[in-house]
Design goal:
Elements (H helix, E strand, L loop, with lengths): L16 H18 L16 E5 L2 E9 L1 E3 L4 E5 L1 E4 L8 E4 L6 E6 L4 E6 L8 E5 L14 H4 L11 H9 L1
Parallel strand pairs: 2-7
Antiparallel strand pairs: 1-2, 3-4, 4-9, 5-6, 7-8
Length: 170
């Protein structure tokens, strides 16, 4: 069913990328607020980070992304760069978020979960993968397990993001 011209339909996939980006941003923001983080609202599109939080007195910048399940690899995959279209037949430009954001806030519609992944732990200007299940060859070294990056659900379990990442690194 088609809505009024120029308006997003009430259900289904949003038709433009700005609207698509607002879905994970809203889910991630809600999860952070549930955990007790102060989240000032950043205004406008085309920002290097979408959410800023006060993490134990430190300003932390979060870029929101949607992860999609890739059945072939048994993992969630998300972009670690933005792509800018060029006019006049010039190539697209891919820009990394290193130095522009501290974490990727990653929402997966398939799992319904939110993950926080440090920007400097993923490939620059490419795609990152978070594994959901065992690898076919039982490899563990170098595997980024989605469960290790999942945001804690209960406020009583909330720690600073810095503490959470220290726990992941162990």
């Amino acid at each position: 069913m088609q809505g009024e011209q120029g308006k997003m339909p009430l259900s289904g996939k949003p038709k433009n990328t700005a609207k698509q980006g607002e879905i994970p941003e809203g889910v991630i923001l809600a999860r952070l607020v549930q955990l007790g983080y102060e989240c000032p609202i950043l205004w406008g599109h085309d920002r290097c980070s979408d959410i800023a939080i006060d993490d134990a007195g430190k300003l932390v910048r979060i870029k929101c992304k949607t992860a999609h399940y890739v059945e072939e690899w048994g993992c969630l995959e998300f972009n670690t760069a933005s792509t800018y279209a060029r006019v006049g037949g010039k190539p697209h430009i891919r820009k990394s978020y290193q130095g522009e954001a501290d974490y990727f806030g990653v929402y997966s519609p398939e799992t319904g979960k939110v993950y926080l992944v440090p920007v400097d732990e993923v490939p620059i200007g490419s795609k990152a993968k978070l594994r959901l299940g065992a690898t076919k060859n039982n490899q563990h070294k170098g595997v980024k397990w989605a469960k290790d990056y999942e945001i804690w659900k209960a406020a009583g379990q909330a720690r600073s993001l810095t503490e959470q990442c220290r726990c992941i690194a162990r």
